[in-house]
Amino acid sequence: xxxxxxxxxxxxxxxPADGEVLVASGEFRSVLYPFLVAETRxxxxxxxxxxxxxxxxxxxxxxxxxxxxxxxxxxxxxDLDAVVRRAHAAGAxxxxxxxxxxxxxxxxxxxxxxxxxSCAGYKWLCCPRGVAFLWCRRELxxxxxxxxxxxxxxxxxxxxxxxxxxxxxxxxAARFDVSLAWHAWVGAAESLKAITMIDExxxxxxxxxxxxTLANDLELPEPRSAIVSVPVASRESARARLKEAKVKVTExxxxxxxxxxxxxxxxxxxxxxxxxxxxxxx
Length: 282
Prior knowledge:
By secondary structure, the protein is of the alpha/beta class. It has 2 domains: 146 residues, 3-Layer(aba) Sandwich (Aspartate Aminotransferase, domain 2); 77 residues, Aspartate Aminotransferase, domain 1. The chain contains 8 helices and 9 strands. It has a 6-stranded mixed β-sheet with strand order 2-1-3-4-5-6, sandwiched between helices. Strands 7-9-8 form a 3-stranded antiparallel β-sheet, with helices on one face. Strand 4, helix 4 and strand 5 form a beta-alpha-beta unit.
């Protein structure tokens, strides 16, 4: 996939007519928006509930639960075991955006029991923009529609099948392929080779230990992932100090998000702590 939003749109096509999609409020828009667009076309219904009430909100009307494994805004880690267990017991499928877990937090889509999983490679997999992935249980492929089918999805594209009908899609997951920006995927191949040379547990612990150090030094709750959302009294002051310290973070409304990766060092964290220590909003 070129983006998680396309993956989400394809997953949305697997929801039965008028089926309900349950989503936690504040969900990342690349997950949420494709379902809301489908709702405007009266193809399904979206119900947003508080993250804490997601499990209790499941009902016989729910066809799909869509959520992030690790919430990008604050690093919250969803209890996938509980979500999958309760959703499947209610007859619903589970779609997970694993963008902020794959590459840092150990995650196995098949073993987790989820039905669909998407992931953008730009974040923890160190790939160029324009690289994303969609995984689903094999038996669910026929329930999804290749919404962006083009020449790449045709059965005979390798032998010059570029023109005209009839519709003749490739078998299996190849029918969901789209024409990709080659340069991004050449870069992604090299990034993924480098990433997979580092043990998954080691990648996680390198980043997580730095995140925990940051949280402890700023007297914030211990994180469950390698993301620390720091509340700041002045975003402008935080921006200026972090720029001076040569620390790059993501700005939010009244917070900054610090996300140590496997290549960061303790000195990086020390600079971030010094820059933010007097700006943390208690």
